[in-house]
Amino acid sequence: MKSLEDQLSQYASYHRDLRNILTHFLGIPMIVFALLCLLSRPVLDLHGLMLSPALLLTLLSTIYYIRLDIKLGVLMFALLSLGLWFGYFIASKDTNTWLFISISTFIVGWIFQFIGHFWEGKKPAFLDDIAGLIIGPLFVVTEALFALGLLRELRSRIEERLVKIH
Fold first, then answer.
1. Would you say 80 and 66 are in contact if contact means Cβ atoms under 8 Å apart?
2. pTM for the complete prediction?
3. Residue 52: predicted pLDDT
4. CB count in 10 Å sphere of residue 97
5. CA-to-CA distance for 125 and 6, rounded, in angstroms?
6. pLDDT tens digits for 118-133?
7. Which of 18, 40, 56, 155 is the most core-located residue (most Cβ within 10 A)?
């Protein structure tokens, strides 16, 4: 398995244009939320524990993120859990409302992604490496943390790798 730095550096190499990164701040959370909404049905209620494909996706993603970095993994779990909770809320609505919100959010999220990549002049990372689909949400979170002045060492190491790539 590639390291956290390997994954983020590779993903970042497709995302150097600030406009593209900013579209990802909207598009990726929308796509993740839409998937959690769509996968929140069917649900099996086991004494208050709501089992669904969305829960499985959240748990598997969290395991992957924790294997990359424990602290970021815990943060991703918290964010995904919030999305999961809201996904269950949307899934509890009538079918038309659930599908409309889920599908329209998914489509708009991808529109943001493709606009960003148009500006960047590069194809999305997942077209070369399917792992880009799971790294995208982590990239957005780490970019937000970088913008807040956190994880300076990680940011420096990624930037050093990017200089070597280009």
1. no
2. 0.91
3. 96
4. 12
5. 13
6. 998 887 777 776 777 8
7. 40
